């Protein structure tokens, strides 16, 4: 049970040292469905900022090509950079909170020890 808690927390805390590799490895090699579930959630929250970054790059490029105004492109780009930055901070806080919750979870905590 303790190993499961550590793997659940490691899935979330890996945001700071190996954001995509560790959750994928835990998801593939884990023996329990609960740990696989937490690895999938952590992987999604680690990939989401990357998807947002590529989407914002595409949108800024599209706005830059469709309008000949660098002011519009700059405003759109700045807005997207701020939005992606906020998303990264919120997801980092989410991962920290979920990692701490996984470490301090009781053995009968339904959120971390049963899979519906």
TrEMBL record:
Mode of membrane association: Multi-pass membrane protein
Lineage of the species this protein comes from: Bacteria, Bacillati, Bacillota, Bacilli, Bacillales
Entry annotated with the keyword Nucleotidyltransferase: no
Transmembrane region(s): 6-29, 41-63, 75-97
UniProt-annotated location(s): Membrane
Translocase listed as a keyword: no
Keyword entries, A-Z: Membrane, Transmembrane, Transmembrane helix
Primary location class: membrane
Protein name: DUF4870 domain-containing protein
A Pfam family assignment: MamF_MmsF
């Amino acid at each position: 049970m303790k190993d499961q808690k550590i793997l659940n927390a490691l899935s979330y805390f890996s945001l700071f040292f190996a954001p995509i590799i560790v959750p994928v490895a835990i998801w593939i090699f884990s023996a329990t469905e609960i740990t696989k579930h937490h690895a999938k959630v952590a992987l999604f929250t680690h990939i989401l900022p990357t998807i947002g970054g590529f989407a914002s790059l595409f949108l800024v490029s599209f706005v830059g090509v469709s309008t000949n105004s660098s002011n519009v492109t700059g405003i759109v780009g700045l807005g997207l950079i701020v939005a992606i930055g906020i998303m990264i901070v919120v997801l980092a806080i989410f991962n920290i909170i979920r990692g701490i919750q996984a470490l301090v979870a009781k053995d009968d905590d339904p959120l971390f020890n049963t899979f519906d």
